[in-house]
Every structure is written in C-alpha cells, then in structure tokens.
Amino acid sequence: MAAAAPAWTFIALFLPFLAAILAPFLVSRLGDRAAWIVALAPALSFLHFCGFLSEISAGEVATGGYAWAPSLNLSFSWFIDGLSLTFALLITGIGTLIVIYSGGYLKGHRHLGRFLSFILLFMGAMLGLVVSDSFLMLFVYWELTSIASFLLIGFDHEREAARRAALQALVVTGAGGLSLLAGLVFLWNVTGVTQLSLLVHLGDALRMSPFYLPALFLVLGGAFTKSAQFPFHFWLPNAMEAPTPVSAYLHSATMVKAGVYLLMRLNPVLGGTPAWEILLPFFGGVTLVAGALIGIRQTDLKLMLAYTTMASLGLLTMLTGFGSPHAIEAAVLYLVAHSLFKGALFMVAGAVDHGTGTRELPLLGGLRRAMPITFVAAFLAACSMGGLPLFAGFLAKEEIYAALATGNPRAVFFTAAALVGNALMFAIALAVGLKPFVGKGNQTPLTPHEAPVALWLGPVILAALGLVFGIFSPLLHAYLTSPMASAVIDEPTVITIGTMPHLGLPFGLSLLTVTLGILVYRELDRARALAAQMLEGLGPGPDRWFDQFVSGLVRFSARLVRIIQPGRLEIYITATFIAVAATLLVPLFLFDELPAMPSGPAGALVQEIAFFVIAALGIVTVLRAADRLTAIVSLGIQGFAVAVIFLLFGAPDLSFTQFMVETLSVVILTLVMTRLRLSVTDHRPPGQILLDGTIAIACGLGFALMLLKAVGTPFDPFMTDFFNTYSKAIAHGANVVNVIIVDFRGTDTLGEIAVVMVTGLAVLALIKLRVGRRAS
Amino acid sequence: MNTLILRTVAPVITALMLLFSVFVLLRGHNEPGGGFIGGLIAASALAIFGIAHGPGAVQRAIRFHPMAIAGAGLALAAVSGLVSIAAGVPFMSGLWIYPDILGAEVPLSTVMSFDIGVYLVVVGSVTAIALALETEPDGGAGEGEGGG
C-alpha cells in the first residue's frame, strides 16, 4: 500500500501547493470547469490518507520526514496518528468538495483562479499543520493558515468591510501565533525536545516545572485566538465577509479547529491540572453560551451559522478541558459531526443566496419547491446539527450529556451551559435548514431556482455522511473516532455509543434540548428580540475595543514618530555621533580600562612622520577654512595622507580603497554642496560650534583610545594563520584580503553589496523627491 | 571646473581608468585589487567624465541606467553563489574550471564572477548617485535624465 512509502506522503502533503500554483493557469484556459480538475489534487491526497485507515485503527502511527537543518536539530517530519488522520481526511475530503463548490459559486468571477489558488494554499498549510511533528514546522504552517485566511477574507478587497475583517483576523490570529511560538519555546526549553511525538511522553516533567503556567497561558493564547474563544471571538463573525466557500471551509470546518486540534494534541502533556480544567471549560462555556445567544439574534443565514460555529468551538474547548475520557470522546464525536453538518449548512446558505439573491431569513420562505435538492441537504444537515436520532450529531450529543451529567456541582454548571447552547443551536439549525424552505414563498431579489450540480454536490454528500455515520456508527468509531480519542487521551480507547437511544439521564437531557429548541424556533422573533435586549444591556463588545485599540496604537505611533523621526538631518547626525562617543568612552572609563599612553614616536621612519604631519595639517586646514570647498578638499588631503600611511604599513588593499573612497568623497561632497545650493561659507553660532566640536573631539578621542587599547592587547594570530594557510590551498588565491571578501565570507559580501545597491536607490529617491518639490 | 583642458583630457583619462579598473578587478585574487576597488576606480572615472562633459554624455556612453548595471551585478553575484547548489555543495562554495584558451590555461571560477558582480554593483550605485547629483535640479545641464 502507498501508505508505507514516505515519499508518497510527502507528495500528498504538497499536492495542494502544487495545485495552488497551477490553478490560475487552468482557470484562464478552461474557465470555471477547471475547478473539477483542480479538485483532483485534494481528492488524491484524500485517497492517500485513506490508505492509512487500517494501519491507524490498529493502533499504529505513521511517521516519516526529511532532515531540514540538522545542525539545529530541525527536521521536516510528520507524525500521523488517529487525531492527525481524522483531521487530514476532513481537510482533504471537505476540501475537494469546497473546490468544486467554489467553481460553481464564483462562476465567471474574473479572479476565480486566484481564489482557488488561495483555497489550495490554505489546504496545504492546514494539512501540514495537523501532521507536523516538529514544533517549528507546526508553527510555520500555523502562521501560513493565518495568512491564507487573511487573503481569503480580504478576497473581495474593493470593499472596506472585507479589508477590515481580513486585517482584524490577521492581527488577532497573528498575535496568537506569536504567543504560541513563545509557548512552544517554553515547552522546548523545559523538556529539551522539539517533536510532538516525543513531547507526549514528557507530560509529568512539564506539569512539575515552574514554567508550566507561563507555557500553558502562551499556548492557550494561540489556541484561543485561532479557535475564536471569548474574548477573542469577534474576528470570526467579521470573517463572514469572505465568499461562502471560505466560511464553510476555513471558518467552520477546518482552520478555526486548529486551536482545538492544538489543545487536543497537547492534552496528554498539559492537561490534567487544575489550571487546565478551570480555564478551558470556563472560557469554552462562556464562548458556547455567548455564541448561541448572539447567533439567535441574527437574521443573516451566514451570521447565524458563524455564531453557532463560535458556540461549537466553545463547546469543544469546554469538553477538551473537562478532564474525563468521556468528555474527550464527546469532543471527538462532536468535532467530526460538526465539520460535516456545519460545512454543509454554510454551503446551503451560499446556494440559497445564489438561488434567491438574499440571505436574510425574514425574506425567505417556501423554497422547497424551487430548490428541492438543496432542501434535502439542508434538512439532513440541520437534523444532525440538532442532534436528532440516526444522525452523527445525535451520537455526539448523547456522549456530551453522558460525560457532563455526572452529578457533582461543577458538572451541573457546565451541563446547564451545554443545555442552553445546544437548545439555541437546535433552534438556529431549524431556522437555517428548515425555515427558508417551508411556509409561503416570498418576493426575493431573484426568482428562486435550484443550484447547479457544483453547488449542491458538496452539501448533499456532507449531509448524507452525517446520516451514514449515525446509522453505521461502529464503522465511524472503528476507523475515525476511536483512534482519534485514543490519541487525545494517550490511552487505547474504544467508543461504543450507538444510534439507538438508551433511556437514562443523557437521553432525558437530549429530549429537553429538543423541546427547548423547538419552542425557541416557534417563537424565533421573540427570542431574537429578547437576545438583542440582553446583549445591548452588556454594552459594546470586543469588536469595538479592537477598533479603539488599533486607533489608539496608530495615534501613539504617530506621536512617537514625531519625536524620534523629526525629519532634520542635523538632529539625526548629532544623535548618532553622541551615541558613538558614548559607546566608545563610557565603558573605558566605567570599567577603568583606559590604555597605557604610548611612549612617543620612537623608531618611526621619517616618511611616516611626514605623512602624519600632512594629515594633521589637513585637519587644521579643515577647521580654519574660510569656505566649504576648501574644507572639503582639505579633508581629502587628510584622507590621502592616511591612505599613504596604510600603504607604508603594508596594507595595499586597504590603502587603495581609502584612496578611491577619499577621491569619490570629495567629488560627491562637492556635488552635494553645489546641488543643494549651500552657502559658500559655513555660518554656525558659537554655541553650535562648541557643541559640534565637543562631540567631534569626544568621538575622535573615543576611537583613538579604543585603537590604543586594541593594539595594546596581545595579538591572537589564530585567524591570520588560518587565512594564510588556507587562502592559497583551498581558495586558490594569494591575496588574502580579496579571498576573504569573495570566498571565505562571500555571503557577507553579498549582503553588503545588496546594502550598497539599496542605499543607491534610496539616495536616488531622495534626490528625485527634492526635484519634485523644487519644481512644484 | 568645466575648462577646455579638462574637457580634452577627460575622455582619455576615463578610458585609461576604466581599463585600469578592469585590470585591478581581475588581478584581485592574487595581487592587491578586487571588485570593490575596481568598482570605485571605474566610478571615479565616470565621475570625471561627468564633470567634464555632463551627466547626459555619461548616460549615453554607458547605455544602461547605472542602477540597472548595479542590479545586474547583484544578480550575477547571487547567481554565482547559487551555482554551487546545483553542484551539490553548500551555497557560495567557490567552483573552479581551467579551460585551455589559445594554449594558455585560464583559471575561471564562480568566485571571479562573484567579484565581477561586486564590481558592477559598486560602479552602478556610485555612478547613479554621482549622475543624479550632477544633473541640475531644473534639468538644465544634463540633456535627458542623467542619473534619475
């Protein structure tokens, strides 16, 4: 089987990226039909990962990889267990359907190719994220998903709302990414391993460590922002500015679950502590109830779904942190069921929008005649979301109640949260999956018509899978959920829950949920008004805080820039040279490291002294010069004299360079003077002369003392010997200086010439700017 | 500065200096010299020519925009570093060949092409700055856009 060959897995991981590159070309050739071809890439990946099913369900793991930077102990390595595999199958499977759906949804859009490219880029990143073994690889992919999400939310970049939402999502998840990086560095430093597969067995050492809490907070910072937990949830509803396939794929089925994935992955390592079992359920529970309440208030189908996604993520976080194997099993079941039904419902919302021209619930009704296929998909998905028997959602809900309703006071609180959240979500499920299709037909912007096959294929398959998994639950458990739960708990686990209702407390709670849900659905308008009233009482939410934070930051940086970048060259140069003088002098005096004074020019040759005198005379002339041109040329004389001294001391390369630099300095300074039309003479008030003189003397003194000190210390010939020995032998060059520049330290030189070129461009820009201002 | 004497001798000086700069560049690996120094000499030569005949004349003489020359140099240097990857050795490793040209063995290397890249970057960048400064703000002295 292909599963055995790491090279195939590598290809499967990179197929989406390859397809991302090819997609625009295919679309420009074939139009929207190209989506069917592009979808082959995730489909092949999906098939490859299916090949792992039997191996993983037998309790094995698949690993592989390549060395990346062995000297840093970094590798590009993957680690596939039940958790990774379930995620990988969801990503590639739903991804295939989403690509097909996108072709229909954005049919004729002039940037369809770009859109598919972004979607596939995201897919590759997300796939890499869930199979990563190395921390760094995980982090890189984590950030790549944030960037892909930014590009997709801002896809319709001509609308301001889309741009704002994209930026907001990037800022929130990007900040979380940095937090995660810091957390991973903590984990690495405490345990000394850089691979998740090794980390899993070091949980005890980590929980004992004093750095446990900081590491936990930082990792949660990453997970909570990515998975839109309260109070970082606000970016997710705003992200609905993206085209519907993006909402279905990134912002419900996959990317937002990356945070949950991380929590599940680290459950054996970080879990089981009081902090874990307080923070996760608390924030998860708040997110669940808040999401469901805000969701009931909405009238836009997509926004209603968005808030239930937030609520579902809260539920998953709550279950993951609840602290019992039962709760983990429930989380696993719910995650799979949610990806299927929420992906389907989002795609339905898009299809309804496509067929009628609106997503506003009050405007929709009676669509079952016009859109029968979409209706079937919507209804099946809504049943699964509501947790009705026979559907995958039912298994999840039974397991949730079985796990939560243990009777102790803490559990009562979370059971209540789950009950309220589930009931409201059931009402919303019916509102999205049933209400638009029943009742009287309304006047909609477009005459309702059934969606094309590309638009109904995805929802139908996902919704049907929800039913298939519900009915054939042993199959689901054997291949997906049991291995996944085993990985999260780090012990072999077998999930047994079936679709036949068992009488008992969980079933009672399920009945209560359904009853409450139907009640809310029947009184949807009143529930909406009530929720709106409650939420308005709470005042502005984090979305406003974000705006205030950003505008405050902008004002602060504007003020700061005015202070440190006033735009006057004199101030920059003064500041620079004061810093140079201080850096040189302060340590010498502070640590009493002043050099011994040299004993006069004994033994110096006549010509050496002569050129020294010329240099000194040059300086005196600079100071006494009546006009600037004389000063510039005199400075050149001083420089030439120094160049000759270099030559006399046996440094021809240095001397050569010094000659050329001095020549060009004189030419360029003169040109600058004439170009800027500076006055011929230099008028400075005495105070300015005193200040400038002091700074100049301090710098000169600093360099002189520093050099004396350097010359005074014993010379270590290690480098000299090294270069003298190897310059000719391995670099084939007798001129050591040049060999160092172009060979031994060639990479440095490459950087330096890049700097030279950028400087040239910057100077050109400055001169051009001046021309522009003069002209105007 | 724009005297008859300077205008007469400038082309000769410039030509000699450019020739010398190439000489300095090529001898650099074994004798004092190299791309940096050679580039500075060439830039001085062009600056002298510019002072004597105006930036427009320099621009016409070198054909390409000086910044394009610098860019080509940077690209050449980077590619010289990358060649070693194709040969399976680390980035920037020097590779040498010794072809027989007209009976003489001529050592050629990626190190040399790298140094030529350095030369071009230096000459291009410095000349661009000098030409831009020589061009009068109102565009009077330099026919066309000299450096900018």
Protein traits:
heterodimer, A: 776 residues, mainly alpha, Four Helix Bundle (Hemerythrin (Met), subunit A), two-stranded antiparallel sheet, 33 helices, B: mainly alpha, two-stranded antiparallel ribbon, elongated, transmembrane helix (chain B)
Descriptive report:
The complex is a heterodimer of chains A (776) and B (148). Chain A is 75% helix and 2% strand. Chain A is mostly helical. Chain A has a two-stranded antiparallel sheet with strand order 1-2. In chain A, a hairpin with a 4-residue loop joins strand 1 (62-69) and strand 2. In chain A, helix 1 packs antiparallel against helix 6 (112-131), helix 15 (274-297) runs parallel beside helix 20 (409-433) and helix 31 packs across helix 32 (736-744). Chain A is elongated, with a radius of gyration of 35 Å. The mean pLDDT of chain A is 89. Chain B has helices at 4-27, 35-53, 55-62, 66-86, 110-134; strands spanning 96-97, 100-101, 104-105, 108-109. In chain B, the strands form 2 sheets. A two-stranded antiparallel ribbon of chain B has the order 1-4. Chain B has one domain (4-134). Chain B contains 5 helices and 4 strands. Chains A and B meet through helix 29, helix 32 and helix 33 of A and helix 2, helix 4 and helix 5 of B. Chain A: Residues 71-115 form the NADH-Ubiquinone oxidoreductase (complex I) chain 5 N-terminal domain. Chain A: The chain crosses the membrane at residues 6-27, 34-56, 76-100, 112-130, 136-155, 167-191, 211-236, 248-266, 278-296, 303-324, 330-352, 373-396, 411-432, 453-480, 500-521, 569-590, 602-622, 629-650, 656-678, 690-711, 753-771. Chain A: Residues 692-768 form the MrpA C-terminal/MbhE domain.
